[in-house]
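Section 3.1: Structural characterization of target chains.
Under the original work plan, the team committed to producing a structural model for every single-chain target entering the pipeline before any wet-lab resources were allocated. The record below documents one such target. The sequence was received from the expression subgroup and is listed exactly as submitted; it comprises 496 residues.
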Amino acid sequence: MSKALVCPCEDVTVEDVEHAFARGFTDMESIKRYTGFGTGICQGKSCMGAVARLIHQSKARPPAGIAPFTPRTPLFPTELSVLATAPFDVQKAPVGSTPREVHLGALALRSELPLPARAKVVIIGGGIMGLALAWNLVLRGETDVVVLEKGYLLAGASGRNGGGVRMQWGTPSMIALAKRSIELMKSFARDMGINIWLRQGGYLFLATSKEVAHRLEANQKLHNAHGVPTEILTADGAREIVPELTCKNVVAAAWNPEDGVIFPWPFLWGYAQAATRRGVRVETFTDVTGFEISGGQIRKVKTDRGDIACETVVLAAGAWSPEVAAKAGIRLPNEPHRHEICSTEPLKPFLGPLVSVLDSGLYFSQSMRGEIVGGMGDPKEPAGLNLGSTLRFLSRYARALTEQLPILGRVKVLRQWAGCYDVTPDNSPILGRTPGLPNLLQMSGFVGHGFMMAPAVAERMAAWMTEADNTDELFTRFNLQRFAEGRLERENMIIG
């Protein structure tokens, strides 16, 4: 029975689902990410019921906790050339409802164990930033750590991105963080016991305007000065790397063969599992409701499961950080902006690098399984915590993608989803102490690149937190106070 197929599209067996149970993944969304069921051609139509039965039979969750994930457009596999013809109003802002999974019944899904009454460090946010920090604190001997996550692991941006990791940035600080992060990713499988499928196929940035071309040229000099082997290419040079590209309207390109792509889900699981093995408590489906503050310090973190007394609080909730900070009377300048993404049916491997048209925000790469995974920014997208999906995105993306890669016109889109960029006024992160609340540490505002910076940022933040004489400039340069002082740290290599 254990070898019986649950999901024929992805070859997921009963045994695979039972293995997910054993690893602590017992809600529908977490099992989907752990096993891959429901991500094939049928999009869960033939397997969701079977997995729900297995959850119920295992008593891993009470019936109220067996909540199905939300199917998103396209309802059926649809060719990119067809999606490209869908009409949309270019003047109208995109809309899209929040998927039901965000409103899962937390009472049914959370742990039955009580929260600890106290912890030395409470990290708010169970995404890649918070979990990487927890692991790095463990490495420095600090295990009295609790990580609080409002949803399931991978519910936020860490589980909703395209997996790109690159060294091509516009400031020395971001270049240094990216270089160190990719160095740590290279040894991640060996160090953490889980494969993140790092593939250094490079990043190829295309510029269709002279303004963006000049930016790429200026950044290339900066990259080379910091040991990143970026080259500036012509359109013909870009086609030598990806012959299938039309390079329509392309005036220049930037190419770094050492950039790459990883698989996001095991990246986060690796940190979570390693930290919990060493004593860190990772509490999912736990909502922070407020703080007890006295004497200019946070004394307790209040949650819908009880209070935790603490010495230090780290806010690493990504696009949700302003919402949490407001409960402590702190205003953050971050704004959440939805970015949509989709995946096609698998193809024979042909695309080595991740390709991005920097002017339009288009990006795409080919996964290890052969899918074309990509997205595209939308200048009309309003700020807001919106994780819904739109036909407008599919149409804009399909047009832009097939303009550069017309050979993909007959390829079908299988699934679509969205995540939130955590956008600051200067496109740079907020790190370090909070004015007026020095034991509230900030770790947010990474726009769309926190995922790829997390290993290095967490490493340095853990050192800064645990060494009394540590004066790492990262936590003063990028502190919250800079906005009041007009001291912005502008980053110009943002996709979308």
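The longest helix spans residues 450-466.
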